[in-house]
């Protein structure tokens, strides 16, 4: 059936008209096929202009006006009607189909933003926009054409959807009468047995527990950072043979090939350039087997002993003999050279940690000797090539070294997350001073209401509890004095949330939690005789004593041989967090601290015992290679050594009076790490040694960050670029202890204070650190060059003032500019912070 247009609509009596003061209408939008033409098939397809007073227009004007009045909050009572269409609008009746009975579709046309409005609900939000936005900002219109939303959603949001009619609960009266008239016949036909069964049925009623829906497993709220997991896994995970030790953004030294010759030869040559890691790249290459059938192997490309890295990261097997090639994996880093706009890829075995190298004194003095006039201060134009000279590179290298020194002075914790730990309930004896007071007027064995009131009073005291520790926790009394109520004991175990950090920028290095770092402290500085929860330093092994006796012609008993106390200390960082600390002036400051287990280096064949619960160091730990086993009680009583805390919380008291710390530890291990994180094994110790924990199980050290010396790089002393340094250090006599200890400290063979990172300035992100370091280095170096030029000119002026005039043509005339004076042979030293 063809659709017809509405008819019979007239204007209501005494209407209140609504007018449009602005319009987005444009007559150019009107249709052009407005003439009725019957085609060869007897069909028509044209747009008929509908007058404003025709029934179709009146219907739209009344419905739109009523809705606009409701949206505009006009007074209830009058009948609101559109006086006319917005300027440039026109109503059309689209006639399409057979000429005798065409289909009719009403369209309101004229808007510049909408081709046509096909219904009243489509036009209402657009009309409301025309009335309320005199500037006609299209983004304020909520119609489907301007807002790009479904019409049903717009209509529902404006309350224009008609309510659905509900099905009547009872039938109409006529139907009821018809059913009532048939009821006697149905009753006569119903059998007696059916009627009897209906009379015996009873309604069902019961009481049951409310059914609970299945509790969905809670998804992870915080994850281990992707870079955190990738860096640790590529360095410490088991089964990896080509390890990636350096992280994006770290400051390293890159070897230059070839090196830039110095003014005096190799002693002052520039062999390393400070760089920043931009990315690491793993490359796989297939190499055909040599004719002899021997496989070519990859040379070690990291501090660890990986000189024979297998192909594809897996051990070779018998089937590989049939494969005519070997897959070699190589690791390289894209390095950004500091001071100059230049980046390039370099093999992993050609980079060193920042703390593993420092410019030599000869190199610094050579930079001093470069004349200022010959120095290329346009550092952006320099590129290290095989044709680069020392004079060309001096300014760029000095700038790069200064940028690196500045960058090593910044630090920042990164990637915060929520750490949860539990505080065990205090015992009766530790909280007896905070028992709830007895309620006046109550008798022994009071009512339930009295017990509830006392409990409410006790719970109100919990408002003062903080996450710093349990010292402020009140405890509900197990019983009260005579005349007070009796109350059952209440166990209060709190789970406290603390903001922690997954990582740390520490000077030149990127440090993550769950990895081992070097501390500045010597082992002899941490409980040298042992203390509660800290074992004494391990002595030398039996073989070390025997070897010393063999070398000692005097027959010394070996007691002078030192053990772990002369070496460094390591910490496996389990947590990083910030605490409030009081200052001398009375104000409060903040300090970042690290928590974790401490380790010492013992001889590989040392046969002592690991620390146990309740260790107090009475045995001294310095036996002839064997220590006496320490009896471990089931529980721990009392407090801890200052700076050492149980793993329940930093700064909190340990479990006491029979509360096992191991239980609290197992519970906290599920709360104290980001979800989806996994522990990593300890890195390999230096050759000939092994790691030994020095704290009793269930305890951890809490240290300020300024006690961290830097990262630990396993087997770094075997790096090919350090061979000459190690050989030189082995030949140095004992009088040069500091020079050699700087190298041994990289692996913990000497205390960390010999080779340490000391950042003091905090910045929020690494990019800001690099930018500020670069800016300050350039400004400082430019100021130094200007000061050096002024000193040169002043010195030359003094020389001209005191020298007698010379008749030679090469002498400097009085009117000659001092900027062209000869270069002073011994200029003032340039200060370069290495």
From TrEMBL:
Pfam families: Clr2, Clr2_transil. Residues 304-315, 642-657 have a biased composition (Polar residues). GO terms for cellular component: mating-type region heterochromatin; rDNA heterochromatin; SHREC complex. GO terms for biological process: silent mating-type cassette heterochromatin formation. Residues 294-321, 607-657 are annotated as: Disordered. InterPro entries: Clr2, Clr2_N, Tscrpt-silencing_Clr2_C. It comes from Boletus edulis BED1. This is Cryptic loci regulator 2 N-terminal domain-containing protein. It comes from the Eukaryota. Residues 80-146 form the Cryptic loci regulator 2 N-terminal domain. Residues 501-713 form the Cryptic loci regulator 2 C-terminal domain.
